[in-house]
Amino acid sequence: MANSIGIVKAQRAVFDTPLTFRSGAVLPCYELVYETYGTLNEDKSNAILICHALSGHHHVAGCYEDEPNNIGWWDNMVGPGKPINTDKFFVLGLNNLGGCHGSTGPSSINPETGEPFGASFPVITVEDWVESQARLADLLGIRRFAAVVGGSLGGMQALQWSLAFPERVAHVLAIASAPRLTAQNIAFNDVARNAILTDPDFHGGNYYQHGVVPTRGLRLARMLGHITYLSDDVMADKFGRNLRTEQYNYGYEVEFQIESYLRYQGDKFAAYFDANTYLLMTKALDYFDPAHLSGGNLNQAFSRAKAGFLVISFTTDWRFSPQRSREIIRPLLHNKRPVSYAEITSNHGHDSFLMEHPHYFDVVRAYLANVYHEVTA
């Protein structure tokens, strides 16, 4: 791993102060799993928060001593000399509440019942995540982030930081994101959730007690989602109409290589991700709309923001298209916020934000170099 942060270790924070969710539900206590990279400076002004997307988690960069092949999901972006440079910044990544990678979520034990939360875990929103992230920052003594960075659903969290805690974030990097989902995106999420909800092994979300996993539903949900993360160009270049064998079998088993790929991705995902977490994450996507309480007026919603912004989109991303990014930019300009925008030519679709791309990385590197100059001025 060139310029990797190297060996890292997950940490755990325990919170005994109840957290009231946007829905009105209350979580009496909870835990957040997180990792940090780099060194926090004396006045704790060089911290960057990384917000993860739907299937992400706290393991952003580096690897574990006992799992050298378990490399962080954004290791190409975060590390010494990389665009998010850990020689300069203290980087924080966490697994959000409701997750299935160590933070309190549906598969965690409810202390009141001694059983997994399951379906009783509250529906969560981006606003709830940001509140819990702010509490973690408090615990670490970080009063203000130099930047909050995220792609996709992570970008929505970064935007929410600028609205919920305008004094606590200097810059926001919203990558391949949107100020709210389109009807088409909500529809995709609903179909994916229904694949899980109608799986006979789902048991109303309490499948843990039955010793089963709604594998079929989760597998289908991931297959559908994965299609939307790729571009038509990538699928054509990588798979085309290639068959696994040299002839048609005239049946319903796997024949095309794209079918084999999607089923492999679905099986792999279903083996480690929690179905209830998938439901929660997609609902958080659906509910995010800063303008909901402003009669749909994004100009008014973003009037609270005080940060500087870097917004990045990718040409072949049809799940969160460049048009969605421009919907972020317009209200920021209306409110006279400093905003930079880059539309990157890439054929990787929505997954582009995870890929190493020279232009994309140069934009992030240059922007954060200016952020670091502010920190050290």
UniProtKB/TrEMBL annotation:
<dbReference type="InterPro" id="IPR029058">
    <property type="entry name" value="AB_hydrolase_fold"/>
</dbReference>
<feature type="site" description="Important for acyl-CoA specificity">
    <location>
        <position position="319"/>
    </location>
</feature>
<dbReference type="InterPro" id="IPR000073">
    <property type="entry name" value="AB_hydrolase_1"/>
</dbReference>
<dbReference type="GO" id="GO:0009092">
    <property type="term" value="P:homoserine metabolic process"/>
</dbReference>
<dbReference type="GO" id="GO:0008899">
    <property type="term" value="F:homoserine O-succinyltransferase activity"/>
</dbReference>
<feature type="binding site">
    <location>
        <position position="351"/>
    </location>
    <ligand>
        <name>substrate</name>
    </ligand>
</feature>
<keyword id="KW-0012">Acyltransferase</keyword>
<comment type="function">
    <text>Transfers a succinyl group from succinyl-CoA to L-homoserine, forming succinyl-L-homoserine.</text>
</comment>
<feature type="domain" description="AB hydrolase-1">
    <location>
        <begin position="46"/>
        <end position="335"/>
    </location>
</feature>
<dbReference type="GO" id="GO:0009086">
    <property type="term" value="P:methionine biosynthetic process"/>
</dbReference>
<dbReference type="Pfam" id="PF00561">
    <property type="entry name" value="Abhydrolase_1"/>
</dbReference>
<feature type="active site" description="Nucleophile">
    <location>
        <position position="152"/>
    </location>
</feature>
<feature type="active site">
    <location>
        <position position="317"/>
    </location>
</feature>
<comment type="subunit">
    <text>Homodimer.</text>
</comment>
<dbReference type="GO" id="GO:0005737">
    <property type="term" value="C:cytoplasm"/>
</dbReference>
<keyword id="KW-0808">Transferase</keyword>
<keyword id="KW-0486">Methionine biosynthesis</keyword>
<keyword id="KW-0028">Amino-acid biosynthesis</keyword>
<protein>
    <recommendedName>
        <fullName>Homoserine O-succinyltransferase</fullName>
        <ecNumber>2.3.1.46</ecNumber>
    </recommendedName>
</protein>
<feature type="active site">
    <location>
        <position position="350"/>
    </location>
</feature>
<comment type="pathway">
    <text>Amino-acid biosynthesis; L-methionine biosynthesis via de novo pathway; O-succinyl-L-homoserine from L-homoserine: step 1/1.</text>
</comment>
<feature type="binding site">
    <location>
        <position position="222"/>
    </location>
    <ligand>
        <name>substrate</name>
    </ligand>
</feature>
<dbReference type="InterPro" id="IPR008220">
    <property type="entry name" value="HAT_MetX-like"/>
</dbReference>
<keyword id="KW-0963">Cytoplasm</keyword>
<dbReference type="GO" id="GO:0004414">
    <property type="term" value="F:homoserine O-acetyltransferase activity"/>
</dbReference>
<comment type="similarity">
    <text>Belongs to the AB hydrolase superfamily. MetX family.</text>
</comment>
